[in-house]
């Protein structure tokens, strides 16, 4: 849906390094089949760009554990278990994840799989049961010393995270990513932003760092509001293809520069990778396997 989306390992590596140079402290990464652009969990594809990113920047590498439609737990964990990264994303529950309304916005697609993928989301549940989450926390967290970006699509996910904190399967400081604007999750409304912060404060006190992301047209205005309420922010072409109304972002780095241009005049500091590592108590880049 955008010619600027990085597809090949080379494109992903270059855009990741450029985003870090623009000021991103954390790089959240997925992989794609370089021929078709389809999401892939193949660790061999990840290993074509992870070492290059590590060589090109000191930013924190954050690999998805979400994968995509039809992937098993072993598929989803194959790349993180091989790479042993400092940080991985972890969705804190099962949920409907509807992307099919985009079928009404586009008349043509580059690949045959794309409209089928969107339509399949009408009858698809992203599965992360309590057992699934336990497995990820044990195999990747305790097994590799990896910490997590806990992706919370509604307040119920905050309570799920609190459950695992009570069981000591996760340890502070927690990195809580509140996500808004996905069909099936919490809507991008001011009331939801403030409520999510109140619940997180109630459950975690001073034991967490909060971040906000929002999908599509909500990205820039909503995360700006989040930052004004004390949140860290996440931008990127995974969440929005645009850098302003009707204008496609030419890269992930452009979105990083854009949000910096909004936040810095408001006297909001941008963390360096070293500062982010200290905030999140990460194991360090030297203790990864790529």
Describe the structure.
There is one protein chain. The chain is an alpha/beta fold and 290 residues long. The protein has helices at residues 9-22, 43-56, 73-83, 113-120, 130-144, 155-166, 190-204, 219-228, 252-263, 273-280; strands spanning 26-29, 31-32, 39-40, 60-63, 87-91, 95-96, 125-126, 147-152, 174-180, 208-214, 232-233. It has one domain (9-95, 127-287): TIM Barrel. The longest helix has 15 residues, at 130-144. InterPro entries: Aldolase_TIM (IPR013785), BKACE (IPR008567).
CATH class bucket: Alpha Beta
* Overall spatial form: globular
Strand content: 5-15%
Order of helices and strands: HEEEHEHEEHEHEHEHEHEHH
The radius of gyration over CA amounts to 18 Å
Averaging pLDDT over every residue, what do you get? 97
Helix share of residues?
40-55%
* Low-confidence runs of at least 5 consecutive residues: none
Biggest sheet features: 7 strands, parallel
Backbone structural class: alpha/beta
Tell me the domain tally. Answer: 1
Termini gap: 31 Å
- Helix count, per DSSP? 10
Number of strands: 11
Side-by-side strand order of the widest sheet:
1-4-5-8-9-10-11
Q: Please name the CATH topology.
A: TIM Barrel
CATH superfamily: Aldolase class I
Pfam family, one: BKACE
GO molecular function: 3-keto-5-aminohexanoate cleavage activity; metal ion binding
Protein name: 3-keto-5-aminohexanoate cleavage protein
Organism: Croceicoccus pelagius
């Amino acid at each position: 849906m955008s010619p600027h989306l990085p597809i090949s390992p080379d494109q992903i590596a270059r855009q990741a390094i450029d985003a870090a140079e623009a000021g991103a402290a954390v790089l959240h990464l997925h992989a794609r089949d370089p021929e078709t652009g389809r999401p892939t969990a193949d660790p061999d594809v990840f290993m074509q760009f992870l070492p290059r990113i590590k060589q090109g920047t000191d930013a924190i590498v954050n690999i998805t554990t979400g994968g995509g439609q039809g992937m098993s737990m072993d598929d989803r964990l194959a790349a993180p278990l091989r790479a042993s990264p400092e940080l991985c994303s972890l969705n804190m529950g099962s949920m409907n994840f509807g992307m099919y309304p985009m079928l009404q916005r586009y008349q043509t697609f580059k690949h045959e799989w794309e409209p089928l993928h969107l339509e399949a989301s009408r009858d698809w549940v992203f599965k992360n049961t309590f057992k699934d989450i336990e497995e990820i926390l044990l195999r990747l967290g305790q097994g590799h010393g990896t910490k997590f970006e806990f992706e919370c699509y509604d307040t119920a996910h905050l309570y799920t995270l609190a459950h695992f904190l009570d069981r000591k399967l996760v340890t502070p400081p927690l990195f809580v990513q509140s996500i808004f604007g996905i069909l099936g999750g919490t809507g991008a409304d001011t009331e939801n932003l403030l409520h999510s912060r109140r619940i997180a404060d109630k459950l975690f006190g001073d034991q967490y760092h909060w971040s906000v992301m929002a999908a599509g047209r909500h990205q820039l205005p909503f995360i700006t509001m989040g930052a004004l309420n004390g949140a860290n922010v996440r931008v990127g072409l995974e969440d929005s293809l645009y850098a302003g109304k009707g204008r496609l972002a030419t890269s992930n780095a452009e979105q990083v520069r854009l949000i910096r241009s909004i936040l810095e005049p408001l006297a909001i500091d941008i963390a360096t990778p070293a500062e982010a590592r200290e905030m999140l108590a990460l194991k360090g880049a030297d203790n990864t396997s790529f």
